[in-house]
């Protein structure tokens, strides 16, 4: 049975009438777009179309003003369930407008490449549980201080030196393949001289050893 709210389930918050909520007032908005008309017809949900109407240029401009992402300083866009390409493109459109954001969470969005995105004021970025395979796929974040990349698929430390001239102090790479690289901590700290904390552990004296110096490790064999 259809619920009374069924015809509204694909509407964005900007499409709801008689409210003045702006984007910078929402800390955890859902920004993914609903299915296309063709997809709704395929799903036999065309009854939801009756709430849609032809959008005028004036209404588009009003929506853009309401989506004032440029004014956001702190935003959580995690768990967006970006299942279609057009949703990913709309998501990136919003990211490109975040010119003042300082804290941004993009957890578990199946993201693979944000290299075309620039976040000029971002100091804290959390992109845990995505599909990044390289540091080169991250957005441009010249002011970054705290970066969390846990549970991605970054296999090597290639490209990490791009953050050498940033004020990066804390980096989390837990549960990435690169974590198992020999002399992993030494390599990271030698590439990032400003780094103070790696994977939640402060910089230790042994982390300061040159990466080409062999350090003896006590090992055990599990049979």
Model description:
- The chain is α/β, with parallel strands linked by helices.
- The longest helix is centred in the middle third of the chain and has 12 residues, at 85-96.
- The chain has 4 helices and 7 strands.
- The protein has a 7-stranded mixed beta sheet, with helices on one face.
- Keywords: Leucine-rich repeat, Repeat.
- This is TILB protein.
- It comes from Certhia brachydactyla.
CATH superfamily of the domain at 73-203: Ribonuclease Inhibitor
Mean pLDDT: 85
Q: Write down the Rg.
A: 22 Å
How far apart are the first and last residues' alpha carbons, in Å? 58 Å
Order of strands across the main sheet:
1-2-3-4-5-6-7
CATH architecture of the domain at 73-203: Alpha-Beta Horseshoe
Strand content: 5-15%
Which sheet architecture does the biggest sheet show? 7 strands, mixed
Stated plainly, the CATH topology of the domain at 73-203 is called: Leucine-rich repeat, LRR (right-handed beta-alpha superhelix)
Low-confidence stretches: 213-219
């Amino acid at each position: 049975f259809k619920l009374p709210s069924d015809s509204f389930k694909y509407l964005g918050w900007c499409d709801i009438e008689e409210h003045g909520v702006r984007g910078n007032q929402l800390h955890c908005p859902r920004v993914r777009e609903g299915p296309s008309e063709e997809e709704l017809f395929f799903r036999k949900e065309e009854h939801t179309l009756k709430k849609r109407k032809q959008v005028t240029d004036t209404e588009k401009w009003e929506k853009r003003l309401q989506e004032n992402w440029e004014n956001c300083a702190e935003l959580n866009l995690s768990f967006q369930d970006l299942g279609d390409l057009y949703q990913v493109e709309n998501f990136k459109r919003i990211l490109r407008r975040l010119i003042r954001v300082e804290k941004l969470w993009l957890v578990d969005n199946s993201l693979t490449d944000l290299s075309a995105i620039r976040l000029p004021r971002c100091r804290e970025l959390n992109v845990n549980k995505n599909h990044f395979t390289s540091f080169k796929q991250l957005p441009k974040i010249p002011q970054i201080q705290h970066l969390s990349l846990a549970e991605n698929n970054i296999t090597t430390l290639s490209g990490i030196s791009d953050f050498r001239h940033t004020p990066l102090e804390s980096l989390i790479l837990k549960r990435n393949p690169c974590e198992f690289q020999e002399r992993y901590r030494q390599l990271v700290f030698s590439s990032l001289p400003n780094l103070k904390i790696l994977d939640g552990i402060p910089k230790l004296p042994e982390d300061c050893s040159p990466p080409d110096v062999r350090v003896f490790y006590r090992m055990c064999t599990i049979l």
